[in-house]
Structures are given as C-alpha cells and as structure tokens.
Amino acid sequence: MANVEKISIALPPDMARLVRAAVESGEYAATSDVVREALRDWKLKRRVAVLELDELRLLVREGMESGPSIPADSVFERLKDKYSATARKRE
After folding, report:
1. Backbone angles phi, psi at 83, to 5 degrees
2. Which residue in 9, 23, 68, 86 is deepest, having the highest Cβ count within 10 Å?
3. Is the per-residue pLDDT at 1 higher than 70?
4. What pLDDT, in 10s, does the model give residues 35-47?
5. Strands (DSSP E) along the chain, which ranges?
6. Chain-centroid distance, C-alpha 2
7. CA-CA distance, 4 to 90, in Å (whole number)?
8. C-alpha to C-alpha distances, 35 to 48, 56, 67, nearest whole angstrom
9. pLDDT at 9 > cutoff 90
10. Calpha distance 32→38 (Å, rounded)
C-alpha cells in the first residue's frame, strides 16, 4: 500500500484473539486487513445511520405538511370503538 499511516491500537484480549484467528485461518493476509475491513464496515454503518435519520426527518416533515393533525386520544378512541363493535358482531 503506497499511501498509509501506521498507527497502533489496543484491543481487549477476546478481540485480539478474533483478529489473530482470522489471519491464521487464511481469511485475511494480515491483522491490518482485518482492522481495515472493520473500519470500512463501521464507516458504512455510520453513513447508513445518517441516511436513515435523514429519511425519518423527511417523513416527519411530509407528515406535518400533509394537513391538520388528529389528537392521538381521538384516534385511539375511534380504534377502540371500531374493534369493540367488531368483537360484538362476532358474539
């Protein structure tokens, strides 16, 4: 690798064993490969979290702009009445 910076990290014993086992099994050529892949996964996970948050914000905004709101108590009361009536019909 042409442009790399060497750093040192400290891992708990169980993680260090996992890294060494991955190299010893031949899954990775070196411990740095394991760490690089873990960091790529971490970076992707963070990006996905940001995208999910952006999507949630968009959905909330769309909901707020879609018209007047209905109080939750009113909605739950209507649902309760609806399902009570359905249950009475079955009896």
Report:
1. -75, -25
2. 23
3. no
4. 999 999 999 999 9
5. none
6. 34
7. 71
8. 20, 31, 49
9. yes
10. 10
d(CA 5, CA 12): 23
Span 35-89, pLDDT tens digits? 999 999 999 999 999 999 999 999 999 998 998 888 999 999 999 999 999 988 8
- What does the domain layout of the chain look like in residue ranges? 13-90
Residue entry with tokens 């739950």: 76
Rounded distance between C-alpha atoms, residue 1 and residue 5, angstroms:
10
Q: Quick check: 19 and 13 in contact, CB under 8 A?
A: no
Average confidence score pLDDT of the chain: 94
% the chain with pLDDT above 90: 82
| Token code pair at residue 14 | 């169980």
The tokens describing 61, both together, are 């905004």
Cβ atoms of 40 and 28 closer than 8 Å? no
